[in-house]
Design goal:
- By secondary structure, the chain is α+β, with helices and mostly antiparallel strands.
- Helix content is 59%, strand content 9%.
- The chain has 2 domains: 166 residues, no CATH class; 125 residues, Heat Shock Protein 90.
- Strand 1, helix 10 and strand 2 form a beta-alpha-beta unit.
- Helix 7 crosses helix 10.
- The two termini are 71 Å apart.
Length: 400
């Protein structure tokens, strides 16, 4: 939609361009009025000035009312022959420009726009046929050119219209693609924030819980068993130091480009399960491990997820189960591994005023992120059970 379509004044450049189009149409009208039947040229008669003036007066409204401009210029073209002028393409140039503008701005379908252009051509020809009698080949060829001119103008207008629609569609697709890229970037940033928050929760909850349990052991045996207290305090120092190392490594993921990168340790997995269980044993939790089937390497993401689920489940046992025993089972199937963590404690070990945590939510999100699932709940015979089924694709062999 242009400024003229909305009733706003045209910019300076557009006004000069509009004046140039109207002036060119007027010159063509006067030029067409100089052509005689015998193809000679004379000075433009008064009728030629009248036709040029009337056509150019109607032409400027073609942007606001293209159909009215086409009807007005066509009506002036119909009067060309009765006024004693020769009907030629130059003298109906304003009608051709109006036909182009109509097809370019027509809100109707392509067939309707073509029908209007065809009707304009028919009116121009109808104004000639009754007055000519026997037509020479020159008259017939001239009439053919006059009749085809509005159709050609319509075809050109339709082509430009399609071109503009194509460019608008390309720009719209580019804008949508840019918007989609921004949405995707924001989604990835949000996912990364959730992942880092989950990592921080797992390592902080695990290490702080162990340090708390070890500190309680040291306080309990401080007077009666000093050696045991010193051992527990050394464990507290080791646990908090490990927590700081893991926290530093996780926060290092947030470094900006160009920051000095520290050597990254490999992500933990089930291979580090013995070291993990040893930290819980030092905190007073005895963990029994049972394995069924043939163990095999897991994809890095699945291996880390299995490790974190065991870590978080044992941390919850230490915090809430009020028991000193837990059981882990690893069952290897053809295309998955099932990890279970169970205890027989009565539960309710957390502080009553403590808000619910995000441990179970984080474990379930981890399992779903790698294509698995997780269930957790109290057992009928007592205690709590966490079961995670994680994929182990691409491994040949039978079921366990």
């Amino acid at each position: 939609m242009t400024a003229t379509d909305t009733g706003l004044p045209l910019p300076r450049t557009a006004r000069w361009r509009e004046a140039a189009v109207v002036a060119a149409a007027g010159v063509l009208c006067l030029l067409g009025g100089t052509i005689q039947v015998d193809d000679t040229l004379t000075a433009p008669p008064a009728a030629a000035y009248l036709v040029a003036l009337a056509s150019c007066a109607v032409l400027p409204v073609r942007r606001r009312a293209p159909l009215a401009a086409l009807a007005g210029t066509t009506a002036v073209g119909v009067l060309v022959q009765p006024l004693g002028l020769l009907l030629t393409p130059p003298i109906v140039a304003p009608a051709l420009i109006a036909a182009y503008a109509w097809v370019l701005a027509a809100p109707t379908e392509r067939r309707a726009a073509g029908a209007v252009s065809l009707a304009a051509a028919a009116l121009l020809l109808a104004s000639v046929v009754p007055l000519t009698g026997d037509l020479s080949w020159k008259d017939a060829s001239r009439m053919g050119v006059v009749g085809a001119s509005p159709l050609v103008a319509g075809v050109v207008g339709q082509t430009v219209r399609h071109r503009r629609a194509y460019l608008a569609a390309v720009e719209e697709r580019a804008a949508r693609a840019e918007e989609s890229r921004e949405i995707e970037a924001r989604r990835r940033v949000a996912e990364e924030r959730v992942r880092i928050a989950r990592e921080l929760h797992d390592l902080v909850a695990h290490q702080i819980t162990l340090a708390n349990a070890q500190a309680q052991v040291a306080a309990q045996f401080f007077d009666t068993r000093p050696d045991q207290s010193r051992t527990s305090l050394r464990d507290v120092v080791a646990t908090t130091g490990q927590a700081l190392d893991e926290l530093r490594a996780t926060v290092g993921l947030l470094r900006q480009t160009g920051d000095t990168a520290e050597p990254a340790e490999p992500a933990p997995g089930l291979a580090q399960l013995p070291e993990l269980l040893e930290t819980f044993r030092r905190a007073g939790l005895e963990v029994a491990v049972r394995e069924e089937g043939t163990a095999r390497p897991l994809p890095p993401g699945v291996d880390l997820t299995a490790y974190r689920i065991v870590q978080e489940a044992l941390t919850n046992v230490t915090k809430h189960a009020r028991t000193d025993r837990a059981r882990i089972a690893l069952t290897w199937h053809r295309d998955r591994v099932t990890v279970t963590v169970a205890d027989d404690g009565p539960g309710g070990g957390g502080a009553p005023e403590q808000p619910p945590g995000y441990g179970l939510i984080g474990m379930r999100e981890r399992a779903m992120a790698v294509g698995g699932d997780l269930s957790a709940g109290r057992r009928p015979e007592g205690g709590f059970l966490v079961t995670a089924r994680l994929p182990a694709p691409g491994i040949p062999g039978g079921a366990a």
